[in-house]
Amino acid sequence: xxxxxxxxxxxxxxxxxxxxxxxxxxxxxxxxxxxxxxxxxxxxxxxxxxxxxxxxxxxxxxxxxxxxxxxxxxxxxxxxxxxxxxxxxxxxxxxxxxxxxxxxxxxxxxxxxxxxxxxxxxxxxxxxxxxxxxxxxxxxxxxxxxxxxxxxxxxxxxxxxxxxxxxxxxxxxxxxxxxxxxxxxxxxxxxxxxxxxxxxxxxxxxxxxxxxxxxxxxxxxxxxxxxxxxxxxxxxxxxxxxxxxxxxxxxxxxxxxxxxxxxxxxxxxxxxxxxxxxxxxxxxxxxxxxxxxxxxxxxxxxxxxxxxxxxxxxxxxxxxxxxxxxxxxxxxxxxxxxxxxxxxxxxxx
Amino acid sequence: xxxxxxxxxxxxxxxxxxxxxxxxxxxxxxxxxxxxxxxxxxxxxxxxxxxxxxxxxxxxxxxxxxxxxxxxxxxxxxxxxxxxxxxxxxxxxxxxxxxxxxxxxxxxxxxxxxxxxxxxxxxxxxxxxxxxxxxxxxxxxxxxxxxxxxxxxxxxxxxxxxxxxxxxxxxxxxxxxxxxxxxxxxxxxxxxxxxxxxxxxxxxxxxxxxxxxxxxxxxxxxxxxxxxxxxxxxxxxxxxxxxxxxxxxxxxxxxxxxxxxxxxxxxxxxxxxxxxxxxxxxxxxxxxxxxxxxxxxxxxxxxxxxxxxxxxxxxxxxxxxxxxxxxxxxxxxxxxxxxxxxxxxxxxxxxxxxxxxxxxxxxxxxxxxxxxxxxxxxxxxxxxxxxxxxxxxxxxxxxxxxxxxxxxxxxxxxxxxxxxxxxxxxxxxxxxxxxxxxxxxxxxxxxxxxxxxxxxxxxxxxxxxxxxxxxxxxxxxxxxxxxxxxxxxxxxxxxxxxxxxxxxxxxxxxxxxxxxxxxxxxxxxxxxxxxxxxxxxxxxxxxxxxxxxxxxxxxxxxxxxxxxxxxxxxxxxxxxxxxxxxxxxxxxxxxxxxxxxxxxxxxxxxxxxxxxxxxxxxxxxxxxxxxxxxxxxxxxxxxxxxxxxxxxxx
Lengths: 349, 650
Hints:
The complex is a heterodimer of chains A (349) and B (650). Chain A has helices spanning 27-41, 77-87, 99-105, 107-116, 161-167, 183-192, 214-217, 279-287, 308-320, 327-331, and strands spanning 49-53, 68-71, 92-98, 120-126, 172-177, 196-202, 225-228, 235-236, 245-250, 255-260, 295-302, 336-339. Chain A has 349 residues and is of the alpha/beta class. Chain A starts with 26 loop residues before the first helix and ends in a 10-residue tail after the last strand. With 650 residues, chain B is α/β, with parallel strands linked by helices. Chain B is 34% helix and 18% strand. Chain B contains 20 helices and 20 strands. Chain B has a seven-stranded mixed sheet, with helices on both faces. In chain B, strands 2-3-1-4-5-6 form a six-stranded mixed sheet, sandwiched between helices. At the A-B interface, strand 2, helix 2, helix 4, helix 9 and helix 10 of A face helix 1, strand 7, helix 9, helix 11 and helix 12 of B.
């Protein structure tokens, strides 16, 4: 967004008069509140803010934010966002999608908006299930998920949204979860990033996939959360309930390993210092198998590159340099000939 | 052609005089036949002849050399009378190899002239073309005039001084042939020489070699060592309206029309496209016109192309997308969203043979159902069909006008034939265009509260509100919405009233388009031949010929396919019979029957080739021979007259 004047708003200013229609207890409520809390913090201007969504529970989101909003069709929100941003680069565009919308039917568009690096924030609500269509397994469902279409348990191997995004060339990857206090900070960082900022938000589907992320999101599980912070060691664990651990690099296998940190001396334990510009590290962090490893959260990767809309503008400037929009001249371009009035007499037919 | 003057029928047309000549260039797809044809077209236009062309090339970029399916042909009909079709049977066939001869010779008029390159009629090429004996030598071409000589050798000789390799030298063959054709029809070589100098500016040797070949071909005709059938024809220039002319293809005309349309609407244009034959040419053209406020976007797929265009429309630009049948099918869901959210959008459909991948490079009109009916739910949108390359310009402007004035997607139908064909076009003066500037809602339309994004005006049209406008924040989407506020509302009465409102809005477009005129003939009578799209030329000529014979037949050509012009039903009721020739299995016929309860009789052809004039003439004649066989039924096309397909193995 180029409008540099921060606007003063409150959370209330971002609420619409529409009744929010998610299931009671849905993680989407918490995300909506976190977004409405974040928007005043970044000085967002309702008139220049556009929420674009596809189809799914998450995609109802725009109806509940008092800004401009476009609830589009299944999986295609990135394409609409691309048209919106190219038509008016001043707009601050937020995409709301889910694991079905963004990884399955719209996986192709997710890939292309990321590789093109359109300046926008992409919030992918991952609840590992199709909620709106009543509980079928999704492309992020873990193997063995029982659902109406997989009564004996699913057997497709799940996709990892963040690994997919990195593979597609994303320049910003972050992770958070619905009820986390860190969610606004993560969104602030995503907004500050110029380019496509991909944020995977683990979201609890209370009806069809309840408590799926409890291992690291419920009370007392914060020892399994690794919040990545640039320039700080990759540490996790709760000193009140157990040891502090860290991630170090196993030079023999070129992979991460969990190490114990004794008396806070992480350097001695060889713990890696997080660098958001290290793409290789980002790959390792998003690919860590959960269980033996903690869940990497926060800003995992943030390395800006030229944005798509800026490249389009530069190309347009080049293409139009020294040219004037003279329609008459354009129409009469190429090899032309005159039919003189005297030649036109005596039409044959 | 577009500058058709009010039709004056004169009995004084001397049938014997060669008022028009049809020439077909055919060769291997690597022989540069499209280039030869294109340049011949240009020289013809420069000579003041009216013309129409029909490029016919294989789907393969480089089909194996010498094969039957690798033949690429380019037909041009030109002359000193109004030309509206690429002609039926050629008078002259230039065959650059045996395969080109085999696939095209049956179409040649009896007594027509064959020019063949004996240098290519070797054993290998004859085998590839499945000739057991050389047709140039076995007398099998007796019903035509044959002019066979070694164009390959003559070309090599002509370009010898330039020291090109054999392969490069032989590439100049097409210019040699063109030189000969220019001589045959008394064309000026200079524009082509200029063009070659420009094209090969970076390689003057190639330019000189090609010019030498062109001159040698021309000189060959002039010195005519062979008298025989080689003769010089001069066609008088066509008398047309005075003014500045250029040649234009349908794809060029649509590109220019879209530019003009966006300017008249006072809007920047956003064009989202995905490569597909034969629609890509429009995207290729528009990327070069960015100074007119055009943003082009080559999307990852057809769906993204239309969705990005709708996104741009939502943000306040004129969104345009373009494709061909299969791509249009993919865009269907997004069209529904544009209908539901009532955003302007122009969708250009360059139709091709279908279904599925079908015939990518061949022409057909079989997407009419898809255009008019092809979406989920009750999803009406206006459909406009261009009848010729030059007409496509006005149609594109019309599409922009209706889309913006009625806040609706509009589909513009063209086809592979119109897209690739070229014809002379009287360059219009933009000062004569009527602007239709579109304004955005800047202040709330609701003194009592929040803006009402779906509050309709007297035409049933909602306001266009750009994101970025202070105080008018609102949400739109594909879910059924309450009247005025646009808030989600599925209630029965709301869906009924919004469905009705969307339909009525499109129905009202009929009041904002010109009344249907009779293209040729009377406003009532025995028979109306009703067409739409690129069948214009053959229908027009067939009706003209039938009228010369005194038959009571008229031509009605419909541009606004949906909604139909308000007076069309009444007009057609004034004829005893209605014949509908279409390059499909009877789609417009269905629409006419449905809308007007008339016995529209179909005449259908789906061979991937345009109608021949004679096919329509025959169908017309049946209405005057007694209708016993045809009451309410189909008029079968005379399959004997379809171009031979036996030689094609693709």
